[in-house]
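Summary for the steering committee. One of the milestones for this cycle was to obtain a three-dimensional model of the protein with glyoxylic acid bound, which we needed before selecting residues for the alanine scan. The sequence and ligand used are listed below.
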Amino acid sequence: MDMGHIGATAGGGVGRLALTDLDRQARDLFVRWCQEAGCTIRIDRMGNIFARRAGSENDRPPVMTGSHLDTQPLGGKFDGIYGVLAGLEIVRTLNDAAVRTRTPIDVVNWTDEEGVRFGSGTLASAVFSGLCELDDALARTDLDGNTFASELEHIGYAGTEPVGGYPVAAFFEAHIEQGPILEAEGKTIGVVLGAQGQRCFKVTVEGEEGHAGTLPMERRRDALVAAARMIDTLNAIAFRYEPHPVITVGAIKVRPNSRNTIPGQVVFSIDSRHPDNDLLAAIAEDMQQSCGRIAKDMQLALTFEQISERATNIFDDRCIASIRNAAERLGISHRDVYSGAGHDACNLTHYAPTGMIFVPCENGISHNEKENARPEDLAAGCDVLLHVILEHAGVV
Ligand code: GLV
Ligand code: MN
Ligand code: MN
């Protein structure tokens, strides 16, 4: 709840975009809490923060846990934040109980999981996991032309540590489910088996500005009319495949965005997701061709760029089993689930044995100021995470 004050919105949620002053404040608070809990802090070149609780054998690879502190523009207090603070809570609990682990434990805050400003999410964990080049990520620009590198610099979190490149024993991420299944079935823990694939695109439609009062309709090259037709078509495409993929156009920028100038350029985002990677590729082709046809008919130029791709992934069998067993031992109800959302843990599957723990959230609502979760469910997820981490880190 203290973290939720930073960027609190009028509607009871949180708006704390990555690499803004609010993100800096959240990071500073997290770093302070971790230092107070006796952790040492490392920050890498993507701004990922690692808070380490030493073990008895510190040359062993760490067991890592965490998530993200950035939010959607109209987001909630729990998406991501829960997973970071669950890690901190485990450190505090081990301190209180004077338990020493064999390997170190790293609690991580991954930079820019949400991908609101720079086009694609989970960017910093993708670099960490070797799925994206560091220089490409740092050169990414937001819609105002600011680079990821300069914004990282601006908030004082452009660290010097290399991004990844060292062994991690296992990674676990606790997260709210962001969907309705656990609540509907009265289960407290979701043992996450995998997550669906995702491709994101940036579409640029080039028309020509003109006077809204003087240019006859038949002579216009209106980029926004073209974009509107494309967006409607993209929505229809989602209904052509079974089971339906999800396709979302959620961000749009119109140039010059003036009541009485015909729009000369429109840039919009596409987020497409499906569990079948081949189907996702077919949809990408379909979307590009459909937008191309509309642009051609209207004699407008089109750039259709794929800016990220994450294949459907599965989590590590041993990590899945330890989450399930921990819930069982603790007498907490559980069921296996798949994730519709993307998570940093999906990238980490390419780097280290990885698992995810879900807890229910109210009415399955997320990416919404109304997002809410019950303290007892959050505590149960934290308990399971603690036991899983102890199993992998070893107790002295
Ligand atoms: C993360 O919030 C996602 O887009 O799935
Ligand atoms: Mn999240
Ligand atoms: Mn999110």
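Key point for the committee: DSSP finds eleven helices and 16 strands in the chain.
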